[in-house]
Amino acid sequence: MRIDILTVVPELLDSPLNQSIMKRAQQAGLVEIVVHNIRDYATDKHRQVDDYPFGGEAGMVMKIEPIFILINKLKAEREYDEIIYTSPDGETLNQQAVNHLSTKRNIMILCGHYKGIDHRIREHLITREISIGDYVLTGGELAAAIITDSVVRVIPGAIGDEASALTDSFQDNLLAPPIYTRPAEFNGWKVPAVLLSGNFKEIEKWQESQSLERTELLRPDLLEK
Ligand code: ADE
């Protein structure tokens, strides 16, 4: 899979995409993540990527030309399954959308900045708008990092234990059961005895009932889905 991220602040994406599991997944060839600086495609001598909005509101708007040139350059090189724009207006990201995106071959993510992008880009070039929640960030870069991180970690082989992405919270609209590690007792706080029993049938039963109980308690909305 290949993910191209288009931004005016590429530095914001350096660290989240180049550590730990994201770094290993790229080194293992499971995903290629390419960050592009939109400013490199500016057409005027000041390398301007934003301009004042028509209509005279406050804030600046990302200009069409550099984004148009960059998107078309990439589209000429390969076919893209989705060209995503990160925006609070978009569909809210959830695990189902993440799983679906992880099956794609090439996706592009355009990060909004300033007041947003010229609306004609959204109308003519973008295939999908994704929000990471009902709040507003200073730019779409952190949203792009979140989309990328969540998509890469469900690519088979990205996390060590292949089964483990499937047992995450939300994979079946249930929260994950509590987990523990050694010591079995700390400060008088004990790990549930069933987990130490070695009886895998009982352990599985306990985990399923815990999942259900925690979902009912903390996220009853998930059970209605
Ligand atoms: N850009 C600004 N706020 C955002 C959000 N909530 N989701 C995605 N992109 C954004």
Structure write-up:
Helices cover 35% and strands 18% of the residues. Helix 1 (11-17) runs parallel beside helix 6 (141-153). The model has no long low-confidence stretch (mean pLDDT 95). The two termini are 30 Å apart. The chain folds into two domains: 2-152, 3-Layer(aba) Sandwich (Alpha/beta knot); 169-223, tRNA(m1g37)methyltransferase, domain 2 (Trp Operon Repressor, Chain A). The protein is an alpha/beta fold and 225 residues long. The longest helix has 19 residues, at 200-218. The strands form three sheets. The protein has a five-stranded parallel β-sheet with strand order 2-1-6-5-7. A two-stranded antiparallel ribbon has the order 3-4. It contains eight helices and nine strands. It is elongated and about 70 Å long. The protein has helices at residues 11-17, 20-27, 64-77, 95-101, 119-124, 141-153, 200-218, 220-223, and strands at 2-7, 32-37, 50-51, 61-62, 82-92, 106-111, 128-131, 185-186, 189-190. Adenine is lined by residues 86-88, 112, 131-133, 135-137, 140, 143. Adenine (ADE) binds next to strand 5.
Specify the CATH architecture of the largest domain: 3-Layer(aba) Sandwich
Largest sheet: 5 strands, parallel
Overall body shape: elongated
Poorly predicted regions: none
Strands across the major sheet, in which order? Answer: 2-1-6-5-7
> Any idea of the CATH class of the largest domain?
Alpha Beta
Estimated helix fraction: 25-40%
What would you report as the Rg, rounded to the nearest angstrom?
22 Å
Query: Which structural class should the secondary elements be placed in?
Result: alpha/beta
- Give every kind of bound small molecule, once each: adenine
Q: What is the CATH homology-level superfamily of the largest domain?
A: SPOUT methyltransferase, trefoil knot domain
> Would you tell me which CATH topology of the largest domain applies?
Alpha/beta knot
Q: Which range does the strand content fall in?
A: 15-25%
Mean of the pLDDT scores? 95
Number of separate strands? 9
Integer count of domains: 2
N- to C-terminal separation? Answer: 30 Å
